[in-house]
């Protein structure tokens, strides 16, 4: 199996051959046609907390990053009855199950980590869904309970990024007032996605955001203290939830204590991906792709992502 790997966390990504491990009974082997790029991919290479966890729980051998993939099934384990060779699928790898990442020619994952793709859904679009789309969905609906609220209102901080551009749309699709905070250059994009765009460069940001609130859920997809707890908490309805997609150590106490601040871990699998695939296939959800990058140039993709200015998603194509 050919994978893009680095020997240690700081080495450049290079193609290398790994011996195929035998397919487990409940697994499928998938030819990777596209792999979405997420900040976690380069963060793991820098040895962040997840990188350490990967070293402890992940497979022995070189570091192969990447979670998101879309492609066609090449082989199925003997207990797999719901997928067959040739099926088009999208999914996410999971190092805690001993799996290598998706920057590879093929991945081996459990069948229930894959959702079927209809023919009208492009591999590149689908490959952008797993981490970013599932995280947005989890913030709004599992944690924010947006579908159970009356007069639902969502505020998305970081509305032009991977997580944010999905969150703006998903809130709107499910009937909520969807307000997205972004830079001046991304105001038109957020409006096009159906959100009320608020430019973070304006003088009284708090008043501009408060005008459309209070909110049932605030998704902070920026982190790094850009939007202070005080700023967010006074914008929440009673019973509202502030979801920190990127918690920093200063947030750990408020997350641990009962209260409105929580964090999220997006977990892509068949169950979490299927509703997103359905929205994509129906044309209600759009994937904004800043650039499709050949997988050979994954190193450049990481440089672009690391700069923190990506609009929508970057995706590696085989
Ligand atoms: N917990 C989880 O399960 C989970 C899942 C997915 C992602 N994450 C984390 O969440 C973060 C976001 O991920 P992502 O994929 O959405 O990242 P991304 O696509 O790289 O986000 C970049 C976007 O953020 C915008 N941005 C930067 N500073 C901003 C600010 N102060 N206010 C509003 N927008 C701002 C940028 O636009 P401008 O520069 O024009 O403002 C750019 O469009 C990353 O740190 C990632 O590691 C966590």
The CATH topology of the largest domain is: Quinone Oxidoreductase, Chain A, domain 1
Distance separating the two termini: 14 Å
State the share of residues found in helices, binned by percent: 25-40%
Number of helices: 11
Number of domains: 2
Largest sheet: 7 strands, mixed
Structural class designation: alpha/beta
Shape descriptor reads: globular
The CATH architecture of the largest domain can be named as Alpha-Beta Complex
Report what the structure shows:
This protein is α/β, with parallel strands linked by helices. It folds into two domains: 2-128 and 287-317, Quinone Oxidoreductase, Chain A, domain 1 (Alpha-Beta Complex), CATH 3.90.180; 131-263, Rossmann fold. It is built from eleven helices and 15 strands. The strands form three sheets. Strands 3, 4, 5, 6, 7, 14 and 15 form a seven-stranded mixed β-sheet that branches. Strand 11 (215-220), helix 8 (229-233) and strand 12 form a beta-alpha-beta unit. Helix 1 packs across helix 2 and helix 4 crosses helix 10 (270-281). It is globular and about 60 Å long. Bound molecules: NADP nicotinamide-adenine-dinucleotide phosphate. Residues 38-40, 43, 131-132, 135, 157-158, 160-164, 181-183, 185-186, 200, 221-223, 226, 245-246, 264-266, 305, 308-311 line the site of NADP nicotinamide-adenine-dinucleotide phosphate. NADP nicotinamide-adenine-dinucleotide phosphate is lined by residues 38-40, 43, 131-132, 135, 157-158, 160-164, 181-183, 185-186, 200, 221-223, 226, 245-246, 264-266, 305, 308-311.
């Amino acid at each position: 199996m050919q994978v893009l790997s680095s020997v240690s966390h700081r080495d450049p990504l290079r193609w290398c051959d790994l011996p195929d491990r035998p397919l487990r009974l409940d697994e499928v082997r998938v030819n990777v046609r596209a792999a979405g790029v997420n900040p976690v991919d380069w963060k793991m290479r820098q040895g962040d907390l997840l990188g350490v966890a990967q070293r402890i729980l992940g497979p022995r051998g070189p570091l192969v990053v990447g979670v998101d993939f879309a492609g066609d099934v090449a082989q199925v384990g003997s207990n797999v009855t719901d997928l067959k060779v040739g099926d088009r699928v999208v999914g996410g790898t999971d190092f805690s199950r001993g799996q290598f990442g998706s920057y590879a020619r093929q991945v081996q994952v459990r069948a229930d980590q894959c959702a079927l793709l209809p023919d009208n859904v492009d591999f590149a679009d689908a490959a952008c869904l797993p981490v970013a789309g599932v995280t947005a969905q989890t913030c709004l609906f599992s944690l924010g309970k947006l579908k159970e609220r009356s007069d639902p209102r969502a505020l998305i901080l970081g509305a032009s990024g991977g997580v944010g551009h999905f969150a703006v749309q998903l809130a709107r699709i499910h009937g909520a007032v969807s307000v997205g905070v972004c830079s001046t250059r991304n105001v038109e994009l957020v409006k096009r996605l159906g959100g009320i765009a608020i430019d973070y460069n304006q003088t009284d940001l708090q008043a501009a955001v408060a005008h459309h609130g209070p909110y049932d859920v605030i998704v902070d997809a920026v982190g790094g203290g850009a939007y202070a707890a005080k700023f967010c908490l006074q914008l929440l309805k009673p019973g509202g939830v502030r979801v920190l997609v990127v918690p920093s150590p200063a947030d750990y106490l408020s997350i641990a204590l009962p209260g409105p601040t929580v964090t999220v871990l997006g977990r892509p699998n068949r169950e979490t991906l299927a509703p997103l695939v359905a929205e994509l296939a129906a044309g209600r959800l759009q994937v904004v792709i800043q650039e499709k990058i050949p997988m050979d140039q994954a190193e450049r993709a990481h440089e672009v992502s690391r700069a923190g200015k990506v609009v929508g998603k970057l995706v590696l194509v085989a």
